[in-house]
Amino acid sequence: MIDYGIYNPESDEKSKIDRVEEMMIDVVKNKKIPVKTVLMESWYPTQRLMALIDNLGKIYYCPLKRNRAGRR
To answer: What is the pTM of this model?
Structure first.
């Protein structure tokens, strides 16, 4: 584990996704940990978060929930 946070939806001003984005940026840019790959559970993969990980030059693996996968 590189980073973690305790999320309290009643008092936290930011969403879980906001917190994860902050952690990703902190790990890559501030702590400069040489992360190559990001693994996440199915709740986290949003278009915004995957774009951030992509822009940071990292590879991500995650299962997609049905409501987050494109359908035709």
So the answer is: 0.76
